Amino acid sequence: ARLPIAEKGLYTALSGTARYVDYRVPASSADVTEWRLFARAALGLPLGPKGLFAEAAASYTARLYDKGSLLRDYDSVGVELRLVYAFGN
What we know:
The protein is mainly β. It is built from no helices and 5 strands. It has strands at 2-4, 11-25, 30-46, 52-65, 74-85. A hairpin with an 8-residue loop joins strand 4 and strand 5.
């Protein structure tokens, strides 16, 4: 979702996914189930030309495995700064 904050072009962008995956590992014939999670929140600031934005964001990613898979859960946090051009504005 991209939501305007002000008439001058400032916006927030929010996105996320949650996926449940169930698969068999061919080498061991073991069933593995996991959750894959992703969330991202961004703030966009308009720059001079129409459609050009600086976007700062933070994200979170995780994989959560079942106990029988012998795989370790992990998660990470990231930050980024993007130069974005929005076509069609």
